[in-house]
Amino acid sequence: MPNPYDVVVIGAGTGGYVAAIRASQLGKRVAVVEKQQSLGGTCLIWGCIPTKALLEHAHAFQIIQHASDWGVTLPYGAPAIDMRLVHARKDKVVSGLTKGIEFLFKKHQIDRINGTARLAGNGRVDVFEGEKQTLDATDIIVATGSSPRSVPGIEIDHKRIITSDVAIHLADVPKSLVILGGGAVGVEFASIYRRFGSEVTIVELLPRLVPVEDEAISTQLEKSFKKQGIRLLTGSKVTKATADAAGVNIEVQTPDGKTQNLTAEILLVATGRGPVTSGLGAEVLGMRMDGGYIHVDSMYRTSVPNIAAIGDVIAIDGRVHPQLAHVSSAEGTLVAERLAGQEVRPLNYDHVPSCTYCDPEIGSVGLTEAEAKSRGYDVRVGSFPFGVLGRAKMAGETEGFVKIVADTQYDEVLGVHMIGPRSTELVAEGVLALQLECTVEELMRTIHAHPTFSEALGEAVHATHGAAIHV
What we know:
The chain is of the alpha/beta class. The protein contains 13 helices and 25 strands.
């Protein structure tokens, strides 16, 4: 008897639902198992979308607070944040997008099955939601994603000591907030709540914020955050945190070995995410695992035949895998096309854009200056400040710069790194440049419209050859 489904996808996040839709487009009969009532996974329900919605509110509030700079008079006094209305709009955005995915499932005749899935071997997936049912499939795609993790000795109580899942729903703006972790999640929430009015402190174990970014980007962000009144404790470790009705008492070990005590209404633990594999049954099938992650090859095949895995839940040949929504989607598309017999090529993770939506924004792709040198390239760099641009002055957003990392021998663009206005949008040009193995000269001959923010990238490329016009 043939399997009723060609493909069963476990998880309806940005990897799973994209894989399902692409597989259906290619003629496969597809089912998706999802334990949440809404589709979209972490990105849509708890991560990218609600967080960025809050960031947009924070940006709007910041502009309104400086209304007089724009010739706008507020007749009723100082503006204030109403978190009830903020969350109502954020939730409306999320709801609209989840309904959009539901529509796409119906359009592509994808069976949505609500419940918790467990791999049962031989192409079978058991689903538990009320009465157990078993699905049969020719191929299975695991896309169960990740969840926030803490650090040893710190107990998440979801009231005073929280993760990002709770931080997006806080009913009130805390007077004080300590954030453990200076990566993308930590600095984004710092930007949100500092602009909402919180006193914010970031504690980061490594010597600098956003440590995966080019060092010059970290330096600029730290300078900007200090200017905004965000306190930074880098190279520091939280050794103890205890909560009571009034707040959280936090013990921090600073780089000099001394202990510093902090108090705050809320401690947000933003120290990364771990794979969701508990109860999946992967170990029972003998699936190869790497520290809780599912091991896959460059085509996302697991060690068990006819089972693939994508997104935050995987490790590729032991390498660090970027936990980004757009990466999961690209992997889902690739796997669906492979299962349909199409010719596919492994993704080049050096060409994956990274976007951090703090204030100022960060957009980057390719090798940092340090990474390029460590790989043996003869490196030259060029940079250009946004503040020189007419468009930046008009917008009142003049912080930051664009930095180009290039190879001297072949003039190839190796990395594009920027911090400043619209950086999360402008980085797309850098992604295309790397994808096409563009040279610096080719980008120099690319005309950038005036007046635009994109001129900063054009000038930075010229600066790489010592030919920037406006500095």
